[in-house]
Amino acid sequence: MTAHVRVEDRECPLSTTMAVVGEWWTVLILHDCFDGFTRFDQFQANIGLSSSMLTARLRTLVENGILTKRPYRERPVRHEYLLTELGRSLRPVLVAMAAWRNAQLAPEERAMILVDTGTGREVEPAVIDPETGRHVADPRYAFAAGPAAGEPMRSRYAGRERQLAPES
To answer: pTM for this structure?
Structure first.
């Protein structure tokens, strides 16, 4: 199943992702969603964003299939915003961003940490290749043109296959 995000037609997945979730306020809204916030007033009170800006950000997230909007009260109409499957798939991205920052801080300087809720132990998330178990920061992993790449992308990564490190 392929999820289609409604943004400018670009091949680069980084550009497309940033077009949808790359704004400061959008990341904070998503963080609130993962913490269980669902209502406009909750987002506004926690983030401190103006009503018009929050409305615009929520609309963008709904239009791109990251959130779904449903009424929870009819008079006056009030909506809640819930993460979709596509939205929930962003959780590892936010976890990795927080971990990146925390890795730069001493443990006593960290204001928010990721913990195993069963043990309370702080965990250090890692992005790995599930087939090999290797961390993707290893230089053997590099971007290359994919099957749907157009000429600009193919040109950018021309010869990349020959540059990759051999398996060890």
So the answer is: 0.81
